[in-house]
């Protein structure tokens, strides 16, 4: 993260004696990226964070097979047809992925077990419902439109309040705000579409009691369930630049031009080999002769994965796209508005329409996306031919 936070009880200096009320020492845990060469936080535990009493291999739940997008085709998936058999972690249905990122959908009303992803950061977008996100850093209350960014190695769990639908973006590295939004010292710049005030992080410690507590751990070698001697939610204080946080899509401030602006103006986060963009309600392009709708485009270096989360997508009318849809437009295919959409929007502007209500989360990848079995199970087989109608 680009700025410093301190939560709970802390000693005056790092790596000095910090004693519990009974006179014993709190146990330090440094959570750091890139071998002590990047962002980190220092956490103070009541018990040793290293004390495990059992370890067992775990067989993955769900179908994790990926297939190439062959024959090359634009795709449309209807997530409303998917039902998870588990929680917001174990019930993830793999939609697409490559060596950089895995994209999954989950819907559940069940609390997850404690979980640690040691392969990379996660960004979980909450489409519908509310949930309490609990971690060693504290609590974040998450609701519709929230991106919850979870650093690699964070022990956490999800506790839904009723049914919650999410898109889980699992990176093979770290997810951060785009560098062009930040000063050389890490402060958000004035031209950035959001800033530090828009980010919500845990405000106080979360303390839990318990012994022999299981934690599901994902590594590059597979899944392991470690049993900790004491509950890992025993941190009395932490400080640093590395912690989970939430950002709501409604706080994204769209950048507009006289004529239609390309997707990079919607970029919200960047990861290794991919970017995440937020398409939000905004004023329509205001040049008197503008075409206020996306032009046909072919991003030769990217696959475009678009999750439609709200509003009215006039550019896609007639394609079958609706809220809950996901479109995949791969490199090698030129895509754009549906036939007749350009004329319809120009007519609407002439009648006084000045804004668009569309909302979507887009992931652009720089390596081809393979298809998960979950996506193939809810595919609209006629989508590719809708531009020819």
From TrEMBL:
Boundaries of every Homogentisate 1,2-dioxygenase N-terminal domain copy: 23-248
InterPro entries linked: HgmA_C, HgmA_N, Homogentis_dOase, RmlC-like_jellyroll, RmlC_Cupin_sf
Keywords: Dioxygenase, Iron, Metal-binding, Oxidoreductase
Domain Homogentisate 1,2-dioxygenase C-terminal: 274-387
Cofactor: Fe cation
Enzyme class, UniProt record, top EC level: oxidoreductase
UniProt GO molecular function: homogentisate 1,2-dioxygenase activity
Recorded superkingdom: Bacteria
EC number: 1.13.11.5
Protein family membership: Belongs to the homogentisate dioxygenase family.
Protein name: Homogentisate 1,2-dioxygenase
Organism: Nonomuraea corallina
Phylogenetic lineage: Bacteria, Bacillati, Actinomycetota, Actinomycetes, Streptosporangiales
């Amino acid at each position: 993260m680009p700025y410093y936070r301190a939560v709970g009880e802390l000693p005056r200096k790092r790596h000095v004696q910090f004693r519990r009320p009974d006179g014993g020492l709190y146990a330090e845990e440094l959570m750091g990226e890139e071998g002590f060469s990047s962002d980190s936080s220092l956490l103070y535990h009541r018990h040793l964070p290293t004390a495990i009493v059992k370890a067992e291999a775990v067989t993955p739940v769900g179908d994790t097979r990926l297939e190439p997008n062959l024959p090359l085709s634009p795709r449309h998936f209807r997530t409303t047809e998917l039902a998870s058999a588990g929680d917001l972690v174990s019930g993830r249905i793999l939609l697409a992925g490559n060596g950089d990122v895995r994209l999954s959908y989950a819907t559940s009303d069940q609390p997850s077990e404690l979980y640690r992803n040691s392969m990379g950061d996660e960004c979980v977008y909450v489409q519908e419902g509310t949930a309490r996100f609990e971690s060693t850093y504290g609590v974040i209350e998450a609701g519709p439109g929230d991106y919850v960014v979870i650093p690699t190695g964070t022990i956490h769990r999800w506790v839904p309040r009723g049914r919650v639908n999410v898109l889980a973006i699992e990176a093979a590295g770290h997810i951060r705000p785009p560098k062009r939004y930040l000063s050389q010292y890490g402060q958000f710049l004035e031209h950035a579409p959001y800033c530090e005030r828009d980010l919500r992080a845990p405000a106080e410690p979360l303390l839990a009691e318990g012994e022999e507590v299981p934690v599901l751990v994902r590594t590059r070698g597979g899944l392991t369930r470690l049993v900790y001697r004491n509950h890992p939610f025993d941190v009395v204080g932490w400080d640093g630049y590395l912690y989970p946080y939430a950002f709501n899509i409604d706080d994204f401030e769209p950048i507009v031009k006289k004529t239609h602006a390309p997707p990079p103006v919607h970029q919200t986060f960047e990861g290794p080999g991919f970017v995440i963009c937020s398409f939000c309600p905004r004023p329509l392009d205001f040049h008197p002769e503008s075409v206020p709708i996306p032009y046909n485009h072919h991003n030769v270096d990217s696959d475009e994965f678009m999750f439609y989360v709200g509003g009215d997508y006039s550019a896609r009318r007639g394609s079958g796209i609706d809220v809950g849809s996901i479109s995949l437009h791969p490199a090698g295919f030129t895509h754009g508005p549906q036939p007749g959409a350009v004329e319809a929007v120009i007519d609407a502007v002439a009648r006084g329409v000045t804004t668009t209500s569309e909302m979507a989360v887009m992931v652009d990848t720089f390596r081809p996306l393979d298809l998960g079995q979950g996506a193939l199970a809810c595919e609209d087989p006629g989508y590719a031919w809708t531009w020819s109608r």
